[in-house]
Structure formats: structure tokens, C-alpha cells
Fold these 3 entries.
Entry 1:
Amino acid sequence: MTAKTDFAARLRWWRRRRSWSQLDLSLRAEISQRHLSFLEIGRASPSRDMVFRLATALDLPLRQQNELLVAAGFAPVWRERDLDAPDLAEIRDALDYMLAQQEPFPAVVVDRRWNLLKANRGAVRLVEFLTGPIAPDARINLADALVGPGVLRPHLVNWAEVAGYFIRTVEADAAADGSVETAELLERLLSYEAARPLLKARAATPPAGPVLAMHFRKSDTLLRLFTTVATLGTPQDVMLQEIRIENFFPMDGVTATLLRGWAAP
């Protein structure tokens, strides 16, 4: 494909993925529908500023903005660094601070596809209590650990509720970023036994509490936890936009006492 036709195809794809008409997108981008039509059929070539305007109107993540720029024949703008890059030291310090502040309760940092990047001691203690020791160099994907059959699922009393909610979250991610990697993650999760029906399942009874708690049980020990998810507020890097910080909080006093006891010297 030439840059012109590649950009035109991607622009049409994103507009249709958002379920918008040409009029919808032209109004959001504050351009004429005629000009948008010319861009979508390759009759007109976009300027760099026009690519940014359309990407913003389409609410594309930074990674997908780069892809649209490249498709139009421009260099990508947003950098993608590893978390251990020297110029991200302050970011790492901030993440470590948040993980430390969450102790003795669990906290993790994951990427867009739920690969584990960082974890505090509280998270390690919880997982090792449920599943046994973790190898120091183990590569952990929390999505697979939650939805798959052999890690957290045997200990998660309300697995169907929690996994169903999580799978719908990944489905929303796949719709938002339009990436092959997120789509593949969704299909992998749905391939696990009993997972696919959860995508459309809805609770038969009203919710019992204000949030959906995770109910873990091992032998006679029961832990009830809920989570919060945070992101960096003003990312200017592809990787930093995609990371999530997930904090786990006790849903009752028994769980809080147990987690604090595990951390006691």
C-alpha cells in the first residue's frame, strides 16, 4: 500500500470501529464531511496536524496515534521506553512509593495485556499463600492467572462473577485500542474452559455489596478483597500510558487482620 491508501484504510477502519458516520467524525474533528470523505478514499492526503486532529477526535491511544501517523507517511511522535530506562527513574520511584504505601495489602503494576511488571510484598504473600512459592524469574500474566484453570481459579469462590467482569473489561480494552495483541488476549481468555459464556452472563440477583469483591478460600482461610485501578494522569510515552496500578483492599476486618499478620516480623 502507498501511504495515502494505507492511511485511508486505517481511518475508515477506526471510524467504523467507533460506529460513527462520516458526519459524526467530521463534526468531532471540526472538518467538512467532504474533506473527510476525500481522506477516506485516498483522494486527499492529510497533513501531520490533520492526522493528530483525527486521532484526537477518534480518542486513539498513543500507540495507535503513532500507527496512524506512520500510515500517513509521517514519523511516530510518541516514544515507547522500557520501564527500566534511565530517564524514567522518577516514574519508577513513584510506582515503588505507591506499592510500598499499600503494604501490607497487595498491589501490582501491570501493562496493557496484564503482564506483571512490579509487585509489593503483600501481593507476593497473597499469591504464595494460595498457590505456593513463585520462582524469582517467573513471567506472570494476571489475566491468565485469574481466568485460566490452574492458578487463582481453584481458590476463587466467586470465580464466575469476577472472571466475567474481567473478561468484559478486556473486551472493552480490545474495542478501544484495536490492537492485535489485545484481541489475541481476549480470545485466549475465552478459550479457557467455561470462560466464553461469561462474556454475556449477567447477575440473576441484585448485587450484594457496593463493589464486586474477590472471595478467596484455601482450606479454612477466607479472604475477601476489592480492588482499585489507577493510571498515570498525563503520560507522554506509549508504555506509560498503558500501565495500570492495581491496589487490593480488605473487604472485612478478618481479611485485614490476616494480611497484617502475614507482614508482622
Entry 2:
Amino acid sequence: MRLRLAREADAPAVRAIYAPIVTETTTSFEAEPPSVEEVARRIRTTLATHPWLVAEIGGAVVGYAYAGPHRSRTAYQWSTEVSVYVHADARRRGVARALYLALFEVLRLQGYVNAYAGITQPNAPSMSFHEAIGFEPVGVYRRVGFKHGAWHDVAWSQLRLREDDAPAPPRMLPDIVGSEGWDAALKL
């Protein structure tokens, strides 16, 4: 398995992983899968500030993880939301864990303090996975999303990335690519 930063050219593979999640599950609250062009735009926009990583096996993209702003107000700038998705054929092979652990290292290099994950309920496997890598439950938005004919809760979990009582503002992703610790963050 190889981890690297996503590129816009990964959009077709990323969409192929994400589309069934949108259409067949409540994991994503999107109603329709985004187009390849929209996925490319999302990758480009995310990489301006936050990491978007892909995992490859045999040269094929089998999973991805990314981070984004938690909220827009300045006081939230040290917090980020994270997501990970793995192709159905590559699940339970350590892909999600590898992606998340690398993502967290990149976020630490940037100076983030907290990572948050929202998990549509019910989803015991995802809840167990997040808890196994250190996330702690912090709350539930009840009946917050309506999809596939039913209301769904979203459970929120938090991972403390680092302790810092007086942090400097996080650095943008382009400012840390290639910096000390970068290569180590993406190694398995």
C-alpha cells in the first residue's frame, strides 16, 4: 500500500469509491453522487488548505481520507473535520487505519489540535473503528438528516491531535508539504 496526496486526476477513482456510498447507504447525506468534475474541484479546493490523501494498492486508488474546516469562525481554526472512505473490495485490510493515521500526522504538522468525525447512525463498525484509533464520543445530533425515507442521527467523536495551550494558527497544507516530518507522516 502506498499513501500520497490526492491529485485532481484521482477524481474518477475517488468518485467510483464514493458513488455507491451516496446511493446505497446513509453514510453520506448527499442525494446524488457528485460528478467527476465536482470531485476534482473538491480535491483542488481542499488541498489549498487541508490534506486529502489516497491509498494505492498495485497502482489503483482503493481509499481516501481528507480533512476540512470544522467551523468558519476564527476560534475554531485549530479544529478540523475528517472523513475516510475505502472501496468495498479493499475494506478490512487496514486501508482506513493507514489513511487516518497518516492524515492525523499531517494535521499535527499543520498545527491542528482537534479532529472531529460525524458518523451517521446506526453504524457500529464505523463507531468501533473510530474508537479503536482513539476517538471519543462527544455527542449526537438527533434526527438531523432525512435520507432513504427515514430520519438519522449523527454521532460526533473527537480525537485530540496534540496538547497546546497557546497554539499558533495552523499552517496551510502547501506550506508544510516537503517540510521536516512530511515523508515520515506518509510512511506506513
Entry 3:
Amino acid sequence: MANPLLTSALNLANFTADGVWQKAIKSGALARLAGQDPEIRVGSTDFFTFTTTPKAELVGEGANKASADGTPTKVTSKTYKVQLTYRVSDEILIADREHQIRLIEALRGRIGTGISRALDSIAIYGINPAAGTVSANVANYFMKANNGVDHQVPGTGSTPTTLIKGAAGALAGAGYNATGLAVDPAFVNALANETEGSTNNRPLYPELGLGFNIESFQGLRAASSDTVSGKNELAASYTGKVANAIMGDFNAFKWAIAEEVPLHLIQYGDPDGAGDLQRTNEVAIRAEAYIGFAIMDGAAFSVIEKASA
């Protein structure tokens, strides 16, 4: 695939300060539902967690005390290095300061979006976002089989509402209170189009409007992004399960950018396999980050699957 920022596509002579525009692709959903955890470090970070309900013992006068039931389990977060490299014409080196700043700001926005979407791609599907295929390096993720995460599978006559209720029921049965809903825009649209009955066109969820840019749903914080379904990241060859939504207690999802490498300029060599920079009259701008995450208890989440094609 051709790089849209090659010299032939970016004419710096015609680049104006207010000429920056990029396709509005939403950033990831998980980061909006779970705050960063400062404890996550580059490499591996161990968390000890209890998944049982603590029960205090009523002790009679003069009676012996017993130890509390339930032992801690260990959950390990692992960090994954991600990078984005953009090539631009080396004319940027002689462009005026305003041009340089605007271009760098545009790239920073793209890079921030890319890293945010990478968190969802890796944590939900375990994929390399650039390739769209599952990576053996990812230890655990939401769609991984047999990791304790509940799955609501669409059946005959299923509606978005029945699937939402099923997810809520699974969480309640596991002893968890949902705090958020990560949801694909197409699924939000389906919810927005549900009506109260076959003869009543009144929307079942009028607060959703047309289904765009939702921030809450039925008392839950909500984050809508096509990263939930992997629409722009999953490869055509991907044959695994696809999510429409993830409901859960997002206190049980730990994540952080453990280390961020600032943008740096590369003027020599072939940093991305696209040819020698000096020969092509280009420079490369690269950003790198170490993303870490851990699912503390799979039972704290319920995935609403997309119906099979």
C-alpha cells in the first residue's frame, strides 16, 4: 500500500498553516472507560487480586478465630512496543517554522490516534494492528478462548436489547456491577433504531438519537469506536469471533503507556524498509510507545458477539 505522505502526495510548497485535514477516525474505547494505572512498568508487572467475596467471621466469646477464606491470585500485565513511522519530503527541513510545526502537530494527532487504537486492537483481539492478524506475543485478550470472559452469542430472534440484557445478567450472576460499555457504532445504530413494538415506531432508547458519539447508555458510561469490532484493523483472513460490544466492570482492566519515546527525526538509512531516505529525498518521523494492560478477572466482562456472516 502506497504511503500517503510520500513526496508525490505531500507538496510542501502548497502546504498552508490551516490546510491540515485528516479523516475523523475515532480513537479507541478502552482508554475512555478505564483510567491509566501508574503501576504498570515496561516488561512485566504482577498484580495480586482476590476474585471471591470477603466474608467476615462472627467470633464467639473465647472462641478461636479462623483464617479468611480465599487466597490471592496473580495477574501479570505485559507491555507491547508499538511504533508509527511516517515519511515526508526532506523539504520539511528547509520549510519555514510555521510549516514545520503544523506538520508535526498533524502527525502527533495521527500518532496519538494510532496508539489509542492499538490498545484496543491488542487488548480485544490480540492482533498486530498493522497486520490485522493474531500475534503469538499477546498473552491474554478479551476475545481469547477460555479466559473466563462471558460471550453473548446472537441466536434466532436476538435483538440488540436481548443481547444487552444477557450481558448484564451474566455480570450480575458473576457478582460484578458493570461500570461501562465499549460499543461498535453499528451496534449503537441498531439500538437507536429499536422501537417499542411492531406497531409503535417510538424509539426504545430515544436518548441515543441517531446513535453517534454516545457517552452513556442506561446508566453506564459508554465509549463508541469501530475498534470494538476491529473494522479497520482485522485482516480479511481473520476467522475468529468479532465483538459488537464489551460490557463490564472496567476497574478490572488495567492499562498504561508504560514508556513513551518522543517523536524523533531520522534523516539517513532505511528505517522502514521503503528505501534509502537520501536516495528518495525524504526524512522519517517516528514515535514509539510501550503499552501494557491486564484483565484482572475475565468474569468481570461480557462480550456481545457479532452475528456470523
